[in-house]
Structure formats: structure tokens, C-alpha cells
Amino acid sequence: MADRTLLGYLAAAGAISIYAGMFTVGRAGSAAGLDGYDQTALRFLVSTILVLPFGMFTLKEILGRIGLRRSIMLALLNGATYSAVFLGGLTFAPVAYGAALVPGLQPFVVMLLAFMVEGRKPPRSVLSGNLVCICGLAVVFLDQSGTWRTSDLIGIALFLCSAAMWGSYAYFVRHWNVPARTALVILGSISPVLFLPAYLWFRGLGILDGDSTAIALQIVYQGGLVGIVAVFLYPFAISVLGSSQVAALSPAMPALATLIGAVVIGEVPTTLQWTSIVIVTLGLAISQIGTHLLPARRSKTP
Questions:
Q1: Which three-class secondary structure string do you get for the chain?
Q2: Per-residue pLDDT tens listing for the chain (302 residues)
Q3: CA neighbor of 42 nearest in space, from 213, 167, 165, 216
Q4: Rounded to the nearest 5 degrees, what angle is found at the Cα of 106, between the Cα atoms of 189 and 47?
Q5: For residue 292, which of 132, 55, 80, 129 has the smallest C-alpha distance?
């Protein structure tokens, strides 16, 4: 059991690191002329080629076990739709905004769904941590006071939407007991069927005329690491640790994503942006500590 728990934490750390780097890779792709739709297409063109041959033999079994409706729902929550929304946010707003908003709001969404669907009341520490995160997210809007650039506001709206989608996916993967391999097949088989035909119809293959280095980066990172490795690691971690714990296990992501953006593409956050990152990180840490201490406290109760 201890070894499996360790594997769960390692899987969560690997997925979080990949997702943290995705902020900068997405922003770099946008600077190279690849919007959220283009980057999503590259991601799923690659992952589909690698996953679909395997998925063809197991998809029927998966649909019979999980159900078509649930499979489509998972594909929409963390598939091409989520990717296009999240990467679209990076087209309009800097990495620091996404690094605060997306991981900062996700645990709150998980907590809210657990209460709405199961009637599960969150521990006081988890609730406190989420409230601290909300305060950190409010600082993002303070950073906008006096400027209110339309592009940043659009990016913020897309980040909030993607956080809600990601948190919902994390909750339902656990709630429905979806294995990591099953999630990989769903996202690698169903999601491209919903997205790629529409993309090719409207845009064709013009993306291949873009910057070859930028395209190669998106193929390797979005298609390989995000589209396959992280998609496998994340639900595996959830299956071992639980959705709330994995969601609250990412206090390092905001700072890590922001630091990567500052070092790699030179997006140095403002003082208020760093303040938001610090507050969100504190909130995530409070939730994590509370989640760990709760079982011990309960075990001492006579």
C-alpha cells in the first residue's frame, strides 16, 4: 500500500510538472502564431496516432463499462475542448494569470462538486484553503484595475472556464472510478473525433506552413507529454490518492509555471501578480495540510 501511495504521489508530481510547463509552451506557441485551436490540433493529431490503434481494440469495452454519455463528458472536460479553452487563454493573457487562476480555482470546483453530488462537507482546513485561494484570485483583478485591457479580460474568462472544466474532470474521474488507461483511451480516441474533423474543415492543413520549430515543440510537448504521459499519470494519481487530495497537491504549480514563464520566455510578473501567486500557493498548501491531518485526527477520536 505504501509503495502504491508513493507511485501515486510521483504520478501526481509528474503530471503537475508537465502541466506547469504547458503554460509557457502554450504562450510560446501563441507568440509563434499558433492559437489555441492550432495547438490543440497538433496535440491530438499526435496523441491520436499513438493511442487510436490501441483504443480501437478497447473502446467498445470501455463504452460498455463507462457508458457513452460519461465518456463524451470526460472527453469534453479534459480533451480537445479543454485544451482549446486553456490554450486560448494563453493567447490573450500572460502566464502569471493562468498560473494563479487555473490551479487556484480547480480544488474549489472539486470541493463544490463533492458537496453538490454527494453531500460531502469539506474539512474546515480544506474550506479555509479554498477561501484563501479565492482571495488570491481576486488579486488578479486588482492587477487589472485602471487598465482593463480587453485581451487580458478575455484570457481571464477562458482561464476561469478551463479551471472549472479541469476540476470537474478530476472529480468525475474519481467519482466514476475511471482507470488511468481508460481515461487515456477516452481522451485519445473520442476527443479527437469530436474536434479534428471540425478543425480540418474550417482550417485545413495550413498550420503546416507555420514555423517548423514552434510546430515541433507543440508536437513533442502538447502531443507527447501533455496528450499521453500526463493524461495517463493524472487519473492514475487520482485513482490512488483521490481527486481532492490530488487537486490540493499542486501548491507548487502556480509558482513553478510562473518561474518557467519568466525564465524561458521572459514574462516577469508584476508585484501584484506575484502576490496572487503567493496567496494561491498558501491556500493550496493549507488545503493539502488539512487533507493529510484529517485522517490522523479522526483516528484519535474514541
A1: CHHHHHHHHHHHHHHHHHHHHHHHHHHHHHHCCCCHHHHHHHHHHHHHHHHHHHHHHHHHHHHHHHCHHHHHHHHHHHCHHHHHHHHHHHHHCCHHHHHHHHHHHHHHHHHHHHHHHHCCCCCHHHHHHHHHHHHHHHHHHHHHCCCCCHHHHHHHHHHHHHHHHHHHHHHHHHHCCCCHHHHHHHHHHHHHHHHHHHHHHHHCCHHHHCCHHHHHHHHHHHHHHHHHHHHHHHHHHHHHHCHHHHHCCCCHHHHHHHHHHHHHCCCCCCHHHHHHHHHHHHHHHHHHHHHHHHHHHHHCCC
A2: 567 888 888 898 898 889 899 999 999 999 998 999 999 998 888 777 776 676 666 777 777 778 888 989 998 998 889 999 999 999 999 999 999 999 889 889 999 999 999 988 888 888 998 999 999 988 888 876 556 688 888 999 999 999 999 999 989 988 888 887 788 778 777 888 888 899 999 988 888 888 889 999 999 998 889 878 887 888 788 888 876 677 666 678 899 999 999 999 999 998 888 999 999 999 988 877 755 544 444 433 33
A3: 216
A4: 20
A5: 129
Q: Which amino acid is at 169?
A: Y
Q: Hey, what's the cell of 58?
A: 478497447
The residue written with cell numbers 478551463 in the block is 162
